Structures are given as C-alpha cells and as structure tokens.
Amino acid sequence: MKLSDIIAQEDGLRIHCYKQGVFWVAYEASAYAVWQLTAYKATKKQVKVVNQEVVSLGFPDKAFAQWSAPYTLADTSTVHHKILLLPDPIDTVAYLEWKANLPLTEHKKPKATQQQEPSSAAMHHQPATEEGMLFYSPRFYASIIEQIRYYPLANSTPIQAFLFLQQLQSQLAINN
Fold it and tell me: From CA 162, how far away is CA 72, in angstroms rounded?
C-alpha cells in the first residue's frame, strides 16, 4: 500500500496499524492515538513522495497485542493491516499540536567509517586463484566480517544496505 493511500485513510475514528517486517507501524492520527495509549516514541520526517511531514510510530507484535486488547478490531482488518475502532474520535486540535511540536527527524546518512569505506589494504588486495576460485588472506576475511558486524543495518535504508552489500561484493571481486 502506498504511503499516500495510508495517509488518506486517517480519519481520527480508527487506529490503522500496518505490518512492516517484524513491526507494526501507525501513521499520523493513528500514531497519535497509539502514542496516547503507550507513550512510544513517534518520529516525524519530511517525505518527498507525499510532499509533507509524516509522523510514524512503530512497535513489535507482542506490544500490539498488549495495548490493543480493549479495542474492537474492525471486520475489514487483514493480516497486514489492523483497524481498531475508537470509542471517541481523536481530538484533532490536540493531535495537530502534538504533531507540530514533534522534532523533525533528518534522514541519517551513513557515516564514512571503515564499515562503509573499504580500507586501502582491502581495495588493493590481490587474491590468490586456483581453478577460478579466489582465496584471500584470513586478515582480509576478518575485515569483511568486521564491516558486516558493525554496519548499522537498523538505521539504514534499503538502498543504503544494498549499496553496502554492493561495496562488499566489489571488495571480494564477485561483482560481475
């Protein structure tokens, strides 16, 4: 489902939660309603696709089951989109004030660290070959493993993770 469609569904009468990986995410007024119930941290970002600031709030599946128990699940809910009926509409003025007071989170760019920038030794390493197979030194493999271990995957976008993987492949000379 597109973010623009998700935002369009926000009416202040229901809480919409969307399954994204192992987490549930609520947006806009739904995020406000969940925040009131749980005090989980909400994030506000400028999103180019919808050309506006968007608030989101994520939480694990187990937490969803705990705080949502008193609410009625709408018949239109699915495995990946839960809709909870609210007994009273969300206070729109309070929601807009809350949203306005949330700090705008900048998109984090990965730091130029050893994990993302190959060392000069790794870039210029010449592997031994045997029947088309590449063999690197144990130190070289250790540097690759260290880069993977310390890569901030939880704070990276899918594109950043893809670029990191592409960089690792080029270091291993398996990038055809």
Answer: 40
